[in-house]
Amino acid sequence: MAHYVMCKTDTYIDSAKGKQVFSTAEVVSSHKERGNAWAARDKLNSKSASLSAFVVIECELKLTKGECYPDELAVALDRERHEEATNILYALWKDGGFSGNEKQQKRYASRLAELGLTYEQLEAQYGPTVRAMFDAETERQQYRAEQQARELAAGQELIEAAQEHTYSFPAVRGIQAGKEFYIAQIPYEVLVKLFVFDDESVPPELRAQRSLSEKRAREISSYMQGNLTSYVLPALTATVSKEMRFEAVAVSGSTNRLGLLNIPMTATMLINDGQHRRRGIELAIAENPALGKETIAVTIYFDEGLERSQQIFSDINSRQVKPSSAINALYNKRDPFNAWIVALLNEMPHVKSRIDFENATVGANSHKLWSLIGFKKAVATLLRISQKTPPHSQELAHCGEFVKAFFERSRRVIPEWSAMVDGHIPAKALRQEYVIGHTVWLEALASFTNHAVLNSSSAVHCQLDELDWSAFEKLDRVHTLKSAPMWQGRCVSLGKMQPTRDGMKLTAAAMCSVTETELPAELAEAEERYAASVA
Q1: Final residue of a structural domain among 296, 318, 340
Q2: Which residue among 78, 98, 103, 302 is least packed, with the fewest CB closer than 10 Å?
Q3: Last residue of some domain: 261, 286, 318?
Q4: Residues 33, 53 contacting (CB under 8 angstroms)
Q5: Which of 128-132, 146-150, 512-516 has the lowest mean pLDDT?
């Protein structure tokens, strides 16, 4: 709906541009907001010969400034007349008619005369409308009075209930989206008794949460018990089904935000986000009761029904951004393999400088060569050890010496390797033209080395000074360009790298071929499939 200022009669105004003449029904200006249109009308009327020469009309049609629209003006004037007459009669009845103030009586008589109506005509035409207005106003007043009475009663009931039967928790009060919420500190033993989650037997559309995974809950419990002095659990989100009472504590600068949150004992406290943490806590304190006195933050909202609870869950979870597996590996010092890899890279600064610690895959324009995730996998392949259950620290230290020897020999033997690691060949050009700058090739090299140097066994118990690197030395024969025939259909297909399991195995098999090394069983199987596919 657009708002237009229109001229009711031929008139003119004096302005800085000189005399401006307007015709009857001419559109003077258009506005999106009604208030702006009325302001423009009042400004024009103040400058015109008549104080009511301009009128605001609302119209769904698109009107053109400077054009005249007599039909639209007639509708607008009729509406204006109706509103004016209705307002006069409403005011007369509300103020007691013509009795009383003589000045007021004259004002109403003048307005009626402008409309060309007698009081009898005014009452006959507009009486039903005004009576309906009074009836509606009476209903609104009754509704407001009823609401006030209910609020007063509910408030009194809340106070009485809070004083007699409530749970009280230290909390901070806040406002989001114009609604009050609280962040309370809840002891674990109280959390598991009072705060519940939806029964998984209820259909998903009638629940405010996803179904509970006991496996995930047990993992959280194990994490807590395995890290009693350093575990961290983020806040839960819950809704409470009954009105809560907050008692502010007078603390300078807190603006009544700190205090005690009183929750009626009969209220339902439903977990909206964090049911696995709550269940994990329950399992943990069953094993270690001393944990029951520790606390967790719970963000609490008033329960506005299932739809709102489901929306809370969706809003929280749909906007979470999971960190990359690389950054998780970098920061996770609890994982012994992660911690060892990071420490090992600190001993190999030339390799470390080429590792992307933040992304699971290296970007096309990155100056890095391998992601931390890809590097870890290649090292585990080289050493033939498990990332999940690695050897103990002394054995890892021994393995680290072999890894360093592997990278040093790669620098000396493999063509362009030294130029690659030292940055003499830009990483972007390497990815475009060479195979050696890709993770699949690094893992293939690690697989070949484990077979050729360690005889397909673990590096944990190897004697470094007794190792035979002669087959590895023959890698100076490899061609490192993507276009080299030896890589086609293996780690390269139609000019693009193939970072697949078979791609890695077939690349390692090509290294065995060029170094005249016997294929181990797992590479021989991949080679047979490859030969059959190209036959």
Answers
A1: 318
A2: 103
A3: 318
A4: no
A5: 146-150
Residues 304 and 375 both lie in one domain: no
User: CA 162 to CA 264: how far, in whole Å?
Assistant: 6
446 & 333 share domain? yes
289-293: long-range contacts, CB 8 A cutoff, minimum separation 24: 291/188, 291/224, 291/228, 292/187, 292/188, 292/189, 293/187, 293/188, 293/189
Whether residue 253 is found in the same domain as residue 200: yes
Amino acid code (one letter) for 160: E
Question: How many degrees, rounded to 5, is the angle at CA 308 between CA 303 and CA 309?
Answer: 65
Same domain, 293 and 415: no
Instruction: Dump strand ranges (E) for 265-337.
Output: 269-273, 295-302
**Residue 363 belongs to domain spanning:** 325-534
Total domains in the chain come to 2
How is residue 529 annotated by DSSP?
H
Strands 27-31 and 179-187, by their bridges, are unpaired
What pLDDT is stored for residue 85 in this prediction? 85
Instruction: State pLDDT tens for residues 271-293.
Output: 878 888 999 999 999 999 999 99
Question: Virtual CA dihedral for 511, 517, 523, 526, nearest 10 degrees?
Answer: 70
CB-based contacts of 503: which residues, under 8 Å, 6+ apart? 440, 490, 491, 497
Any domain includes 508: yes
Say which residue the tokens 């190792």 belong to: 467
For the chain, the average pLDDT equals: 84
